[in-house]
Amino acid sequence: MPDQTVHGTVIIDANEPIKARNVTLQVVGQAHTHWKCKHMSTYYNPETKTTEVNRGIVKESESHPARGIETYMDNKFVLWDGSDKKMLPAGIHKLNFVFPLPHTCPPSYEGEFGYIRYYCKAKIDRPWQFDKTVIAGFTVLPHFDLNTIPHAANPRASIPKYGYVPGESIDIQMDFLNESSRKIDCIDVKLIEYTIYTGKCDYTSHRARKEHDRTVNQIKHHSKIQAKTSGSEILSLKVPPIVPSFHNCSIIQVDYILKVNVDAHGFMNNTMSFNLPILIGTYPIIPRAIESPAYPMAPPDYVAPPQSTVPPEAIFGPPPSYAICKFGQGTVALYDKDAKNAENFGFAPRYLYYNSGIANSYPALPELSASTQL
Asked: How confident is the model at residue 286, as a pLDDT?
């Protein structure tokens, strides 16, 4: 978690003495985006000057890399200094280290066109030989308290609230008054992760943007509501281990949408659909009485994700559990000069996950006062 202190140990098992200048540890936290952006290029080719129309002017689509980098930490420590002998004795060496995490760190994330990664890189600097390098990743997960977000606990249309944590189920209730001559065939519900990547095009140097979505979870339900009848359908969609909604990274932003499609029988393109914004946090909404406003307020079409907050120890305690991200290891290559020669790198983030029923059993949050610090 940001602002926490990380303790660790580098273990070297040397079967024989190793010639080495030193053993170093580099701690890196970095966001990186990378994709191909397309541009139309125009140039003159006399060989194509065959008509009055083109006059030798050729237009072609070209692809150029677009990339973005944002660094949160990049610190290097010397864990062992060979001094004059430059010889690491045989045996098992345990080299301890400690470092703080910046309070501005966004969560670890693995996407289709970028990542936010935190890792330690241990290196044995060997003269006249290839250095021995090992990279190990770790998860950083800011605390996103859904109780601090206006509207997150308010009901809307077919769902009881906006905000959820991994492990909770989104219960969708739909009431139908089917006055048509067609029965309702299928109800398709998807929880979608919507990501915006930004960077700079290598060719034009302009700011580039890439949007991408992927399905987090999905449920299809065959409805029994016939023509000229009414009825209700209730579906439940589990939230798997996923990154919380976040906007505190300048080149990667993640939001979530609940997409509902209702298909009628017998006609093509006869689908009714609607989208609902969903917030994913790390601390669940605590049930409490919600005062009705004096004047009805329209529900928002978009809900901004929470800012990182510090969990009060008295109410948070040990986390319920951690689970490997729904999407597993990232596929974007690590942007590090030592990545090709490193061993043991392959990391999937682990996110907070609430077992069934736990999310609703946490105590109510204390009232905030001027002296309370988050």
From this structure: 81
Give the span between the Cα atoms of 121 and 368, in whole angstroms.
41
Q: Is the dihedral of CA 290, 295, 298, 303 positive or negative?
A: negative
CA 262 to each of CA 3, 152, 265, 319, 353: distance values in angstroms, whole numbers, following the listed order: 46, 25, 10, 38, 30
Place of tokens 């919380």: 244
Any idea where the domains of the chain sit in the sequence? 146-306
- Name the E strands within 45-142: 57-81, 87-88, 91-100, 109-110, 114-125, 132-138
320, 292, 312, 306: which is closest to 367 by C-alpha?
Answer: 312
How much is the average pLDDT of 298-327?
Answer: 61
Q: Which residue has the tokens 């950083």?
A: 140
Q: Is 316 helix (H, G, I), strand (E, B) or coil?
A: helix
The structure tokens listed for 32 are 């990186």
How would you classify the pairing of strands 109-110 and 207-222?
unpaired
Its pTM stands at 0.80
pLDDT tens sequence across 33-80: 999 887 666 655 566 555 545 555 666 667 888 999 999 999 999 998
Average of per-residue pLDDT across 104-128: 92
DSSP line for 266-283: T-TT-EEEEEEEEEE-SB
Cα 196 from Cα 250, distance rounded (Å): 10
- From the list 1, 26, 10, 31, the residue with the least C-alpha distance to 330 is 31
CATH of domain 146-306: 2.60.40.640
Strands 271-280 and 163-164, sheet pairing: parallel
